[in-house]
Amino acid sequence: MDKYIIDGGEKLYGTVRAQSAKNTVLPLLAASVLTDEQVKIRGVPAINDVENMLRILTEVGCSIKRQKDLTVIDSSNAVSHEIPARLTKELRSSVFMLGSVLTRFQRAKISYPGGCDIGLRPIDLHLSGLKRLGVEIVEKDGYIHCEARNLKGAEILLDFPSVGATENIILAAVKAEGITVIRNAAKEPEIVDLQRFLNAMGAKVRGAGGGTIVIEGVKRLHGLEYTPIGDRIEVGTYLIAAASCGGEIETIGVSAENVAALLHKLRENGCKIYAKNDRIVLRSHERLQSVDLVETNPFPGFPTDMQAQYSALCCTARGTTLVVENLFETRYKYAAELKRMGADIIIRGRTAVIRGVEKLHGASVTASDLRGGAALVLAGLKAEGQSSVIDISHIDRGYADFEGKLRKLGAKIKRVRI
Ligand code: UD1
Does residue 92's CB lie within 6 angstroms of at least one atom of ligand 1? Predict the structure, then answer.
């Protein structure tokens, strides 16, 4: 088990390059079983969620080769339609395998998926969408058994624009007979990237990025070599770190459009931000001014995956911020830990009231989920004195070389084995 030791108070300067987006790479890896030709993905990040997804692929019979920057998935010998429970427990995205395994084997067996403990996270929207495509579903002994002898295109209206359900339905519809229309689809950039990837395999998907996605089923998909988009949540985390600690950083690999809601808030906080193509420069030299309200919403709203890190910034801004978490029920576990560092936070249900204090002080704190863990690190970078963050395996799920990238920006952070 590792922990981080952080000596706070350093300003951050320099350039940081985005890893490939975790939330794109995971569905792309699942999608690789849609063809029996080789799928080559560039820049797959070295994070635990990816390792778990690769393990799942191996378990269904894929062979995986990692050559420098290229991950090669060969599913020509894939045989199994069963995703073992011990792996689905580790990773929520294992649920994407449902759509792609159904397309490949006409059946799938999976146990209820795990992932960050941030709320109920049901998969009813995934299942009802798949049923509309003709999938028969039986839930028994904690397993979901799906059978789809004949996947057929259908009109699907999602009650909520769920990212995962939208992706899963696309994966099940790409080779279905006829046309599928998903209304009230999620609009996240990762869905646009999935569309680009699938179309490069020969699929016919259009409309991603908007609320209606149309999928025309094709008979065959082929292999490809692909570079996924950069990770907007990772880049957002470094931008928040620099905004909070002060300094000047440049990020490369994510366009301002994909982090627009965050940049809007950081400008209101008093940061100077310049953006061109896939580069963003952020300057922060004064104590930040708090914004009144931050509310998480589906894209292009403020992302729930940046709520914790942004809340850490609010802890030392001048004034009070009201944070409303609309996506997940229990995404404030990190707040109790921030309080140990001197933060003034009151949580009531989905709302946090954060009164900015002048200083945080170093403390020993425990990460309990991925983004909450990152928020504790950001607070440690800002705090006076030394902090330690334990249970950082949560952070390793989503950030490749977090400490290395922060150190390059001038942060005093090290990983220690305990
Ligand atoms: C994805 C992201 C995750 C991000 C989230 C919201 C990946 C791998 N993960 O997760 O990082 O935090 O989007 O932007 O891309 N819901 C239902 N029924 C369902 C599905 C979802 O009620 O069948 C609810 C969830 O409980 C939640 C909301 O819909 O309240 C959003 O969830 P969803 O968009 O599905 O998130 P994920 O795909 O799990």
Answer: yes
Amino acid found at 50: V
Exposure string for 201-216, b = 16+ CB within 10 A, e = fewer: bbbebebbbeeebbbe
Q: Which residue range(s) make up the domain with 98?
A: 22-226
User: What pTM value is reported for the model?
Assistant: 0.96
Whether residue 307 is found in the same domain as residue 389: yes
Q: Which of 121, 229, 371 to mutate to test the pocket of ligand 1 (most atoms within 8 A of CB)?
A: 121
Tell me which residues are annotated as active site. 116
What are the pLDDT digits (tens) for 254-296? 999 999 999 999 999 999 999 999 999 999 999 999 999 999 9
Residue 256 DSSP label = G
Q: Which of 193, 226, 259 is the last residue of a domain?
A: 226
The rounded radius of gyration (Å) of the Cα atoms in the chain is: 21
Ligand 1 lined by 26 (C-beta under 6 Å): yes
Asked if 409 contacts 384 with a C-beta cutoff of 8 angstroms, the reply is: no
- Provide φ and ψ at 356, rounded to 5°: -65, 130
Cis peptide leading into residue 300 (ω within 30°): yes
Domain count, the chain: 2
**Sign of the alpha-carbon dihedral angle for 332, 93, 398, 290:** negative
